[in-house]
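User: Just a sanity check before I run the rest of the batch. Below are the structure tokens for the first item. I only need the designed sequence back.
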């Protein structure tokens, strides 16, 4: 692997949040929402927000391999929640361009970040390899792993707040309001 290719996951990780703000502006500009698409899209966004919230209340970043809660079904519930949210917002926007941009961004940003994070976890935690064999990378398994039923593995409000996952809720609410403004003021 070339140095440039090895460095891309690190660059992708650093630019994904600022890129999200730029994408929000482009998204709003390209969106053609209708009331039906906004309501339907919001109904899809909500489970994505919920999944991210629950996952953030379980994960102990860089301290252990989290295998409880949503992590018993998928190794990347935070990214899966983001994908669900993106699908809801794509539906709300009613724009093929937005769908294409989201797919390209997922492939260029999230796939390399997920792979780099997995390499890090494999190097830091010997149990990660067994976990990775049992739990799918992204699409969830219906039944949790047997190890996921630890008695001490409950949702932690403190972890949720520490990871500032409420920002997903706030960002989604802001974009829904922006889409409402676009419908009302621009006669969408």
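Assistant: Here's the designed sequence for the first item:
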């Amino acid at each position: 692997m070339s140095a440039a290719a090895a460095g891309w996951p690190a660059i992708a990780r650093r630019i994904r949040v600022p890129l999200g703000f730029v994408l929000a502006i482009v998204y709003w500009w390209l969106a053609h929402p209708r009331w039906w698409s906004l309501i339907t899209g919001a109904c899809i966004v909500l489970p994505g927000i919920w999944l991210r919230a629950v996952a953030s209340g379980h994960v102990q970043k860089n301290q252990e391999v989290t295998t409880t809660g949503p992590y018993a079904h998928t190794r990347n519930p935070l990214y899966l929640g983001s994908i669900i949210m993106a699908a809801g917002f794509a539906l709300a926007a009613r724009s093929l361009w937005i769908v294409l941009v989201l797919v390209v961004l997922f492939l260029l940003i999230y796939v390399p970040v997920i792979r780099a994070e997995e390499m890090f976890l494999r190097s830091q935690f010997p149990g990660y390899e067994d976990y990775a064999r049992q739990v799918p990378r992204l699409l969830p398994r219906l039944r949790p792993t047997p190890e996921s039923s630890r008695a001490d593995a409950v949702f932690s409000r403190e972890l949720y707040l520490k990871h500032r996952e409420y920002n997903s809720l706030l960002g989604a609410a802001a974009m829904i309001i922006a889409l409402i403004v676009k419908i009302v003021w621009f006669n969408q």
